[in-house]
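Whiteboard transcription, Tuesday session. T.W. wrote the structure tokens on the left side:
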């Protein structure tokens, strides 16, 4: 198991791993690998867009470590469970609006004390801004037409000056017909008009078709 450029992320062959914060337990059926006295969880890039981004080896990705992170669109907790492995000392606030996905996210959080799930709509940050407070890193993975606007609205009230952002842009949730490149450029323009700086964009194919990671700075 070899360390990568991102602290806490390891590589074995082409596969990425994090150290399992809850040894013996899986979150989504991932492979567990024991080396000496350390157990690692395989981070599947076809199940996690952040793993897909790391597998593409972006040039300018700074993962932290943050002390406070806000994750919009936690779903069933696949990616946030790996973030909890990476940042055991950080507070990870996870917003999810789906009442069907939230119980699974809660189960993941019960085993990881640094995960703090919030049942809320990411389009309404005023509902949770008082509970979360300023964060160092804002991560978004939501299937909404107004993804860039949602990110800007959350960043404007929650992301610290100089903070970092990651938007996993789902192109076909924005438009079924427009070319992916145009959707990406329009999103970047909206993000920059909202006071954010686009550092780099990364196409997540072949792991996630019509998805782009947008790396940002406040």
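and on the right, the sequence the group agreed on:
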């Amino acid at each position: 198991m070899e360390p990568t450029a991102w602290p806490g992320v390891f590589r074995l062959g082409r596969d990425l791993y994090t150290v399992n914060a809850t040894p013996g337990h899986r979150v989504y059926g991932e492979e567990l690998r024991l080396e000496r006295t350390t157990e690692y969880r395989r981070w599947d890039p076809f199940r996690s867009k952040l793993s897909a981004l790391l597998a593409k080896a972006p040039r300018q990705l700074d993962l932290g470590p943050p002390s406070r992170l806000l994750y919009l669109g936690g779903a069933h907790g696949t990616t946030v469970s790996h973030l909890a492995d990476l940042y055991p000392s950080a507070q990870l606030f996870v917003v999810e609006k789906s009442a069907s996905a939230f119980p699974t996210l809660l189960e993941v959080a019960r085993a990881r004390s640094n995960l703090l799930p919030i049942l809320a709509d990411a389009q309404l940050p005023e509902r949770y801004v008082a509970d979360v407070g300023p964060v160092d890193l804002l991560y978004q993975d939501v299937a909404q037409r107004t993804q860039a606007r949602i990110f800007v609205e959350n960043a404007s009230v929650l992301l610290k000056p100089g903070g970092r952002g990651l938007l996993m842009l789902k192109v076909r949730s924005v438009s079924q017909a427009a070319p992916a490149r145009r959707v990406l450029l329009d999103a970047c323009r909206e993000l920059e008009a909202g006071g954010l700086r686009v550092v780099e964009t990364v196409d997540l194919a072949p792991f996630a078709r019509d998805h782009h990671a947008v790396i940002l700075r406040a």
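Someone added at the bottom: The chain has seven helices and twelve strands.
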